[in-house]
Structures are given as structure tokens and as C-alpha cells.
Amino acid sequence: MTASAIFCACALTMTPVLSQPVFAASEATEAATSQSAVPAEEASTTEHSVRINGDSFDYKATAGNLVIKDDKGDPSASVFYVAYTVPSDDDEPRPVTFLFNGGPGSASLWLHMGSFGPVRVATENAAPTPPPPYELKQNPYSLLNKTDLVFIDAFGTGFSRGLAQEGDDKGKNPSSKFWGVDQDVDGFARFITRYVTVNQRWNSPKFLLGESYGTVRAPALVNHLQDQGMGFNGVILVSSILNYGADAPGLDREYVGLLPTFAATAWYHNQLPQKPEQLAGFLDEVRQFAEGDYAQALAQGHNLPAEQQRQIAERVHQYTGLSVDYLVNANLRVDQSHFRKELMRDSDTTLGRFDTRYMGLDKDAIGARPDSDPSDTAASSAFISTFNNYLTGQLDYHADRPYQVFSRDAIMTWDWSHQVPGSGWPVQMPYVVDDLGNAMRTNPGLKVFSANGYYDLATPFHATEYDLAHMQLQPQLQKNVQIEYYPSGHMIYLNEKALVDLHKDLEQFYDNAVSY
């Protein structure tokens, strides 16, 4: 969703980008401001209330920054956060959840303004949100009834910034020292440790909640923090990508992972030759075909006999609505952008990448790929505008520089290598399945919740299923992984009905993950 935009994930192209809407301060402005002296730790705290499930919850909202230090004890960054805390009525500590979006290089206003915070911006469902004025309303689906919430902005986004240190290259943005898979995890770990210490939350049940690239950060982060002695109760993954190597050239795993989402999309838009009544049962059939006959056919490469290729194309046609000839000409391999252009070409309509329920129009109908992503532009202005108003008007937080929604420099210079647990050297593209598996084995009480949108082509649900099934967990740990599905896209909460169901599921997840 954005003004020019990359909204949340290029997981299925060869460009490793999981971004969020782009807007706000220039990189030059951010870099220049980053050279200033170490800022003081300051915060604005205001009091509010919200009704959830018919009950009223009084809470404090704290918008501020904390300074983190490197191993030498030198200040390395100032991290911006907004925390929502509810006074505890008894002697038991309330859970605390740390939430963040992805990018890499995105601030966390998307989760903040759309999902589980105490306020929520009103947007249209599967359609463009009209221009301002926008409505910011109480969020009856906030998780404040179960947990305190801390929304964190990544380095170089929001008001979070790296600090210049002795020996730094004066031509580089000081935030760039955190622009990498493991560098980012280390910085987030230092912030969470600082927050927990300052606010005396070491004995609180703890959770991480990441969306999009945030689901790369969360598994590596929980494993890293637990190695340092901080225990966690749960990890919540919203619209996941756990393995950036799945779409490497020569591998066909990408197409197997995409097929069930193609099928769900064709079902939603009534493009199937014979549409079944129920989506869930239909997708079980598609999964079986994708992992069976389809995967086996792709594995043969150009050795697949022409007759068998056409037979498989006939099956894929039944599941996706794409023509047999188109599928044969594509060698049975259709990527997400081709699908978005082709499925409804006859009606001169394209589909969204982050949410295929959204429909758009291109300049013409002859191209192979869409000109833009209608799900990317549908609600960005509403999120960005309301957040800026909310920050100053209700949180009483006034900054001396613009809030930076997205850092293009971060994603363009990101270090994608990752040190996998137990490996002697880093892998070149992040694979965090092993991080999460290791975290669960070393902490058998750790629970994992995976939320997936049926209509998300950026991080398709079947690819997530495959990755979560390859953590090599023992049977007694497998029950700690819960996977749920919702009739929405990448930002599940844009569909209010899906948010209602997601909130109910997470209420139960928190109850199961916290035991006194």
C-alpha cells in the first residue's frame, strides 16, 4: 500500500524485499539528523480507555525512545517505541508483547494502526479507501485485554536511528550498521533487553509478534534472546516468509507454494470452471495435487513428456482458471505477477499482490505483468495520515523531524546473510526455520501461532505450511505450533471479519501460552 510503493514483501521474486508503504522523510534528512549528539531518553505518557469484549480497560500510552549501547558500552542507536500498558489487578505480572513490521526497512505503523493497538484506522475492505478525512476509532479487537503492547520501529524508520560513533565512515548513515539480518536482530535484542530492564518486566510472560519480514526477524530474535537468558512464552507470525532461498533459480518450490493461493483467488473471483461450494475442502485437494502430481511433473524439467505436460495443465486449469494453452506455454510455471495479469485479462482487470481480492486497471491489457498493485495503494494514505495526527493529537508526542515510514536505503543495502544455528558459516539468503526450531527445542514451553491470509501472494500460506513442517520437531513439540487461516490478504486486519476471528484465536493462544 503506498504512495509509490513497495508494501510488504517481494518474497516471490528474485529481489529479496519484504517492504511496507514508502512515504515520509528523505534519506538525506534522516542521515544528517543521525549525526547529531546522543539524544536523551524521553517519553510522553497519556491515559486512555478502550472497550474490548464489552469490558473497559484503562491504559497508559507511552511514546518515547530508549538508547541502546554496543558491547563497548558506547551508545549505538536511539529506538522509538509506543507502549500500551494496563495496570495489573493482582500480583501476577501481565504479559508483554513486542510487535514490529517488516520491510526490511519499514516502520511499524501498519500493525499499530490496523491490528491490535487500542485505536484503529477505518478502511474499506477489498476496495480503495476514499481520500481524507479519515476516521480513527477505538479498536474493540485490541489485544490489550490479554497483553501489554510495545510497537517498535526498525533502525532508520519512524524516529529510530543509529548514532554516529568514533571510527564510523562519515559518509554513511549511522543506521546502516543495523541493516542486515543478523545486525537487525542484534539491535532489536538490545532494545528489548533495555526495555525489559528499565520497566522491570523480566518476570513478565513475553511474546514477539512480527508481520511479513518481521517473521524473519521474530524466529531469529527469539532464539537470540533465549540464548542470552530471556525466556519467551510465544511467537506470533503474521503473513510469514521463513526461507528466502525457496525461489532460487532452478528450484520449483516457489510454484508449488503458490498454487493453493492461485486456487483460492480463482475461487474468490468466480474464475473456476467448476466452483466448489466450500473453499477449505477445495484447498485440501489442491494442496495434495500441488505436492503430488504437480511437483513430480515440475521435477522432470524439460524431460516431462508433452502429453503428460498437457494432462497436468488440464488439472491446473481446473484449479486456477488459467487456460490450458497459457499453462503449456508457461511450462506449467506461473509466477505471481503473471497470474495477477492473466486471470481476469478478459475483463481488463488486474489483481493485487498483497491481497488478490483487490482489483485494478492497467493502461492496456497486452502486458505480461500488472502496472501496479491495487492492494498496495488502497489504504496507505489512511494509515500514514491518521498515525501522524494520532501521534501529536492523542499521544502528545512532538518530534523535531518527520516520521520516516520506510527506508529505501535500508532495503537497497541490506546484508541478507544469516548465521544459521549450528552452522559454521552464514547462509547467503535468510533461512530462519532452524532458528525457530532450535528456540522451541531449547524452550519446550514456547508456543508458535501462524496467521495466514488465503489471498496473500506475497507470502503464500502453503509455503509457510511447508517451512513450519520442516523444523524437525519431536511429536511432543509439534502440538505447540498452531496454524490458522483467514479470508484476507497480507494485512489480514484489512478485513474486519478476519480481524474478529484472528482476535478470538489469539485470545485463546495467550491463555494457552501463559500458565502461572
CATH superfamily caption of the largest domain? Alpha/Beta hydrolase fold, catalytic domain
**CATH level 3 topology of the largest domain:** Rossmann fold
Strand content: 15-25%
Task: Please provide the ordered H/E string of secondary-structure elements.
Answer: HEEEEHEEEEHEHEHHHHHEEHHHHEHHEH
Low-confidence stretches: 1-26, 28-35
The coarse overall form would be: globular
Q: What structural category arises from helix and sheet content?
A: alpha/beta
Rounded to an integer in angstroms, the radius of gyration calculated over CA atoms is 23 Å
Protein name: Carboxypeptidase C (Cathepsin A)
Pfam family, one: Peptidase_S10
Keywords: Carboxypeptidase, Glycoprotein, Hydrolase, Protease, Signal
GO molecular function: serine-type carboxypeptidase activity
From the structure above, extract its key features.
Rossmann fold; two-stranded antiparallel ribbon; 34% helix; ten-stranded mixed sheet; alpha/beta; 2 domains; single chain
